[in-house]
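Hi there,

I know you've been waiting on this one. I reran it after we fixed the sequence typo, so this is the corrected version. Both the input and the resulting structure follow.
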Amino acid sequence: MPESSGDYLSRVQEYKQRLESLMGDAREGIERQAPDVLDKMAATARNIAQRLDDMASDARQRAEESEAPESAGTSDRVPEQRDEPPASSGKSGTASA
C-alpha cells in the first residue's frame, strides 16, 4: 500500500523535531560540562607553567654553577627576585582537577 505524501511529510516533520530536541539536549549538556573542562584545562596549564618554571630555575642554577669556577665568585649578573610567582603560574579562582 503506497504511503501518502501527507504521512511522509508528517514523519519527516516528526524526525526533524526529534533531531532538534536531541541537538538542544546535547548543547545543554556541553554547556553544563564546559566550566569543568575549562577548570581542568586551567589546572593543567598551571601545572605545566610550574614545571617550566622549575626547569628554568634548575637551568639557571646549573649555568651559575658552571660559571662559578671561571669567574671565582665575581659576577656582574643581578640575581632574580623569586618572591612572586610568574604571572603564568599564579593562582586563579578556578578549582584544580
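Quick highlight: Confidence is low (pLDDT under 50) at residues 89-97.

Best,
R. S.
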